[in-house]
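debug: dumping io for the single-chain case to check the tokenizer round-trip. Nothing else runs in this session.
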Amino acid sequence: MNLSRLLILGLLAEQGPMHGHQIRRTAALTNAEGWGGITGGALYAELRRLDAEGLVHAVREEQVGRRPARTIYEITNDGRLELVVQRDAALPVIFAQADPLSVVLLFAPGGDMAELAGELRARSRQVQLQLDQMTAERERLTRLGLLAPLARAAFRRGELRLEAELRWHEEFDRLFHAPNRPDRYESDDETEQ
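debug: decoded output
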């Protein structure tokens, strides 16, 4: 699965011919770097690879004013097949990225639980800020009529994931501040025994 490839082929299949700057701009507007780790540089490099593989091809060049000429690409039939392959590879993935917080908790929590709890409270505030920003952006774009139903669904999915992360932070904080807090995190089943 290659998210850059999936994004480019998907955009060309759904929106028709585009140049690299339009693709990069769409990725930036949808915060593709945040949710998918897709950077502008990676998109341009992937677009060149797709062209070399015959999955997209140049249809023309455009030049506006004194700006450099831009090559307009469209998806090929082979590109449409690759899009299906990439989509089929992406759909079953539940969590694709590494989870740094779990690695910290499992292998490097540090010795001072109060310090760790303070850092996690700061992280929780950042998660809340990100949730607030995502919700506001979804609402703004919806009011402007700029979000298709599937795009709204993608925003909402991101919001729900952030809400789940906040619930975990609340649970951790309750455990940490419990009168007889354990030295390690215990599930409800373990504490009942």
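debug: round-trip ok. The chain has two domains: 3-90, 100-192.
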